[in-house]
Amino acid sequence: MTFSSQPRPRIALALQGGGAHGAFTWGVLDRLFEEGLEFSAISGVSSGAMNAVMAVQGFVQGGPEGARAAMRQLWTRVGEGNVFSSIASPLDWLWGWDKGVELGNELAWTGLTNVLRMFDPGQLNPLGQNPLAPLIKDLLNRKAIASPDAPRLYVGATDVESGESKVFSNAEIDVQHLLASACLPMMFPAVEIGGRHYWDGGYSCNPPLAPVLTFRPDQLVLVRAQPRQRKGVPNSTGDIVHRLHEIAFQAPLDAELSLLPRHTRLMDISADALAKLPLTSKMNTEKNFLDNLFAAGREAAEIALHKA
């Protein structure tokens, strides 16, 4: 059974990537869908792509409430399985986590930075395992996202050789496309699709806006998964690398925002609540942490709704 309604409002959603910080985006969307938001197009990269797929297939099956249920199922499974623990555990002794160092601690991040410089992905992850693969395979409903009633769905990845963004749409999206969109090159091998190799979409489009702007939406809802600005100049190696990543992932979005049609209203939902979290927290999939991010996302959405 699919959700049917009158023609949907010309509203597009764009979801940034950010690993576990996607739970913040989950909270934002949960509050917006609770308000009854309907959308005609959605794009995302990395965890933003996971949220986008769940939102689309849930929406097809049950409207806004169906979208809420599908996203909750995803993040409940992520938290219950602590999906990145299988990758982190063999490296605990290198990162210092077996000595009681917290995931977000500066010492842990400095240790991680040094490890990534010393070892290549094949040494850190010799089997090329991605803990998201079985989870996505179990939850993905390709029939729903390819349905004629489904909102337009766009998932971005980065072509390793050309450096250009590659955007996949509804009918072609499968497990491999989502893994490509979330492929961190220092942790996982590049994902091959159609003879091309792909890394995380955040390097070239975070998230891709051009496809959803093609329909000249009346409103664009942009959900960020990283803060736009940080006060102060970083000094430590960990903080410097962290900030460089944020700047690199922000640049493609800034370029695409300049293409926003004049008539399109922008609801830009800030992730400034995440400004105190270090880069390593993006791999923290412990349930309590995800729940806190979800609550922060709902609060950010509430603020945006009051301003609208």
Strand content: 5-15%
The gross shape turns out to be globular
Q: How large is the count of helical segments?
A: 12
Care to count the β-strands? Answer: 8
Mean pLDDT: 84
- N-to-C SSE series? EHEHHHHHHHEEHEEHEHEH
Protein structure class? alpha/beta
Low-pLDDT runs of 5+ residues are 87-107
How is the main sheet built?
8 strands, mixed
Describe the 3D structure:
With 308 residues, the chain is an alpha/beta fold. The model is unreliable at 87-107 (pLDDT under 50). Strand 7 (219-223), helix 11 (237-257) and strand 8 form a beta-alpha-beta unit. The longest helix is centred in the N-terminal third of the chain and has 35 residues, at 47-81. The relative contact order is 0.20. Strands 1, 2, 3, 4, 5, 6, 7 and 8 form an eight-stranded mixed β-sheet that branches. The protein is built from twelve helices and eight strands.
Question: Any descriptors?
Answer:
308 residues; alpha/beta; 8-stranded mixed β-sheet; globular
Summarize the SSE layout with pairings:
Elements: E1 11-15, H1 22-34, E2 41-44, H2 47-81, H3 85-88, H4 92-95, H5 106-118, H6 121-124, H7 132-139, H8 142-145, E3 152-159, E4 165-169, H9 175-181, E5 191-193, E6 196-200, H10 210-213, E7 219-223, H11 237-257, E8 265-269, H12 287-307
Parallel strand pairs: 1-2, 1-7, 2-3, 7-8
Antiparallel strand pairs: 3-4, 3-6, 5-6
Helix pairs in contact: 1-2, 1-12, 2-7, 5-11, 7-9
Task: Please provide a brief summary of the model.
The protein is an alpha/beta fold and about 300 residues long. The chain has twelve helices and eight strands. The longest helix has about 35 residues, at about 45-80.
